[in-house]
Amino acid sequence: MAGDRELQEAVARFVRAFGLHQPDQTPCGQPVPVSEAHALGELARDGALRQSELAHRLRLEKSTTSRLVTQLINRGWADRTPAPDDGRGVLVQLTPHGVQAAARLAEARAERFSAVLDRVPEGERAGVLRALTILTEAIDET
């Protein structure tokens, strides 16, 4: 049975192998901070989001998300507008340039994941996905 130390080492190896420890580029090699790439992905998938909802989805503090959105705005990838139904709420949405950036990242991500999955034996793919789901759920519960 795997212990704490084995799990720590396995996760650390995965993080390094996948490039998650490189803060200024995505694991698929794009020169975009990982947090910005995740924000672009959320906004591209669901359109305008309240900044508080984006913080929740990214599991970031509100102040961190505010700085992140400012970075996206400075790159010309997003706009921040008042929420129409709440004077205190803020909506974040992608600009046309942000939509293009999100599409480039999605394409690079799809290529990277496809290449990784191709190297996992077909009979073990479901198990790998299940293990990742179990780990994510265990982390969510802590």
From TrEMBL:
InterPro entries: HTH_MarR-typ, MarR/SlyA-like, WH-like_DNA-bd_sf, WH_DNA-bd_sf
A Pfam match: MarR_2
Keyword annotations from UniProtKB, A to Z: DNA-binding
Record-annotated HTH marR-type domain positions: 4-137
GO molecular function, one term: DNA binding
Naturally occurring in which organism (per UniProt): Nonomuraea dietziae
Transcription in keyword set: no
UniProt GO BP: response to stress
Protein name: DNA-binding MarR family transcriptional regulator
